[in-house]
Each structure stands twice: as C-alpha cells, then as structure tokens.
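Risk register update: the risk that structure generation would not scale has been downgraded. Supporting records follow, first protein first.
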Amino acid sequence: MSMLDFAHHIIAVANENDKKITNLQLQKVMYFSLKDALKHNTFTKEQTEYIYDVPFEVWRYGPVVRKVYELYKPNGASPIVENEHEIDIFKPINKSILKYLDEDPFKLVRDSHEEKFWIDNEKYISGWRSLISYGVDEVMG
C-alpha cells in the first residue's frame, strides 16, 4: 500500500457516495483522515509507516503529498473523476473520509494552519511550497 493507493481509495469513496473531490480537498481529506486513523488507533504506527511511503510537505495550503498533487494538478480546481475502487485496508476509515469530504476544504486548510508543525515550519515556504516533510509523529500531532 502507498499514499497513492490511499488517494485512489478516497477518490473511490467520494465517487461511490456522489461527492465531488478536488485536488486541494483530496490533500486535506488524506491528511485529516490519516490523522484520525492514528489518533483512534485504527491504524498502528507500523501500518501507517508502511502506507506512508511519500510524506506530506508543508505547503501554503497546508499538508500536501507532492506526488499525489502533481498527478492531479492538471485538474486544477475541477473535480477528480476516475474509476477507482476501494481498498480493503483503508475501509475502516471510510467514516472519517466521508466526514472530511463534507467539510469545506478551506476550513480544513485553516485547521491545518493551526497545527504546531505547520506553524513552526511556515517560514520555510517559498512561494507555495517547501521541502519540509511531516513524519508520522507530526501527522499524529
């Protein structure tokens, strides 16, 4: 499993529930649903480290997985429409995924800006991005 698999799973959940998802929204849903999975012990730290093959980075709009962002960048602010399928390992966090899909993505951006790791590293953002990576511990908060 990988962060790209996680992104595909979230897109599948969105599509199966008739919810639109943009690249910005995907990034925030990935971050906050993974954070919830760690917080509620849905995934162990070891499972998360296995999934977490490409880290979130500190960007202007909050945590972003660069590889996933680049893949969906051509969509701009348009919804991502792909024929993806849910992946069993991620199904236990579908409730969190759906919760964050219903949130305003800009509220999630603001929420991510209130977290200590982002605040401590905002100064390293050049333009819209930085190379500062979140470790699993930073995602856990």
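Supporting record for the second protein:
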Amino acid sequence: MAGIDFKYAVSGDILENYIKGTYKTRTVWERVFLHLKSKGIDAYSPGQHKGKCTTPYVVLKNTGTAGFEGSNQIGSQTLDVITYCPRSNYSDIEPYTVQVQSFLGELKGYIRPTGNITPVILDDSVNGYTQTIEYQTFQRLRR
C-alpha cells in the first residue's frame, strides 16, 4: 500500500477483512483506526477531514514513541484521539467522547488510556467543539 492514501484503501476490502479477522494491521495507529471504523465511527488521519464539522468525527494522531529510561529496546507509543462535534451541539461532545472511549476499551490488551484528557474547546477553524484523549501502547523499539 505504499503511496496509497489510507482513507481510500480502507474502502471495503481492508475494513471487511479486519472485521473478519483476516487482515493483520501494520501499526498501532492502523489498528485503532480500523477498530473505530468497524464500530461506525467516522475516523480520519490528521489533515484528512475537509470542511466544517457538521457531524461528529474522530482524528487519530500518532504522537510519538519514547524509550523507557535505561532501555533501548522497550518503550511506549502514544496516540491522540481527537473527538469533534458541531458547534451547535455542545451537549453531544461528552457523550460522543465517552462512546469512543468505550469502543477503545475493547482494545484494553493492546492500548490503554494515559489519563490525559484535554478540556473541551471550540475550534473556530472547523466550527466545532473538540477534546483530546491520550492513549499509549508498550512495544519493542524499532532499530
């Protein structure tokens, strides 16, 4: 899939095979993305969503990998799960974020919440409210 925008590659086959359990994800980000898509969540990579926020959606962002002190083999990778709801629906942001967290709880053997959750803020650039939840996974460092 090198050179293919993942949004378009997820059209049918990859998502269907993920749901069937026959697609092996390549990254933490991809597994979380496909899991949310399989639950009906409108998910995007950073910069992919265009236009104003008219319905709730999620942006997934890999925020980096860090090694554990004293180890060059084991570390953790963090992901930001950024939820969006339209400006006209402030009361929907918290229930939507809780729903996304519930779906991600199904991956508890794979990722875990760090406890870092930002306050709800208004993002005028998309005309919607947003909130970020941080997750992490432990992994071998690539060398």
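The chain has a mean pLDDT of 86. On this basis the risk owner (M.S.) recommends closing the item.
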